[in-house]
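Researcher: Last one for today. Full complex below.
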Amino acid sequence: DAGVIQSPRHEVTEMGQEVTLRCKPISGHNSLFWYRQTMMRGLELLIYFNNNVPIDDSGMPEDRFSAKMPNASFSTLKIQPSEPRDSAVYFCASSFRSAVDLRSGANVLTFGAGSRLTVL
Amino acid sequence: KQEVTQIPAALSVPEGENLVLNCSFTDSAIYNLQWFRQDPGKGLTSLLLIQSSQREQTSGRLNASLDKSSGRSTLYIAASQPGDSATYLCAVRSQGAQKLVFGQGTRLTINP
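Model: Here's the assembly. Have a good evening.
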């Protein structure tokens, strides 16, 4: 398995432009998470999906951010319009959660390599 | 609201030393605690996961302990090597929640 695949690895854009980050989770995994990492705030959960359904998007900073998971093998995180303060590394992670896992808490997240976003 | 703190923020030691990284959390009602490693410019790699019912987990030269009542976990690295240089992050999953809350990490440098 190639692991969690994210694209692009690096993106530099100008303020006001639309940014779309993509993620392909590990095949068979049914939970997907989007995290953002900055020096100031560390790793923050933005949103996560179970079985393609958004469960908790309370970490999404503003309406400028949106995420979709149209099928089990693909998710996008979109920022429109982008601002300089959105500059960060965005990580996607996936895991497999069974009913037992949900009760016991047994789960191991596998992270992608991240997408480094710079908004000028 | 769960908060996770890691001390120290950075640590530099000579090769061969045994060392301990610390993690503390404010809410002891947790499902599990995970230690991750992050290399510069890379994603996170899960090292150890400790369930709330466990006291410790071991993997090779790594040993992680958990004391839920005091809200603490430690990651012990034996016989450190330059290849251990990375940022180590602690993450907690609280009961009733599916998300992990991360600490800020400890940046470890092992000097040859």
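Chain A touches chain B at residues 4, 31, 33, 42-45, 48, 50, 55-56, 59, 91, 93, 97, 102, 104-114, 116 (CB under 8 Å). The radius of gyration of chain A is 14 Å.
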